[in-house]
Amino acid sequence: MLSQQQDIIYNLGIDIGSTTIKAIIIDADKQVLFKEYRRHNADIVTSGRLILNKILESFNGCKFRVTLTGSVGMGYAERLGYRFVQEVIAAVEVIHQKYPDVHTLIDMGGEDSKMIFFE
Question: Domain for residue 101, yes or no?
């Protein structure tokens, strides 16, 4: 378990797609502290609860800035009052920051596929 440092706010990103849920926690230096990938088999609530329980085991008492994405994420973000970022926008941000030499991104999801060209 991480030591509880009340002044630190971690970033928790949750991608709820048509077939999977993915979660990642990063710190202010963008270091990955936690990641989880789970097929939800159309039981999003149970799968999400399992992931959140894992997070609570390791990050109990910590504060998070939560952002949701994914084809199912928007509805949950609206109901729970969390920030939502459309998945293509999120992918483009990461590519620009971490891989500036990339010219094409192909995202093959459970529901659709997307191809993004960068100039």
Answer: no
Q: 49 to each of 4, 18, 41, how far by Cα in Å? A: 22, 17, 14
Please report whether residue 91 resides in a domain: no
- The answer for residues whose C-beta is within 8 angstroms of residue 46's C-beta and 6 or more apart is 40
- Helix boundaries (H) for the chain: 44-59, 73-80, 87-98
Is residue 108 a contact partner of residue 116, using CB atoms and an 8 Å limit? no
pLDDT in tens, 74-84: 999 999 999 99
Say if residue 70's pLDDT is above 60. Answer: yes
CATH of the domain at 72: 3.30.420.40
| Mean pLDDT within 51-75 | 95
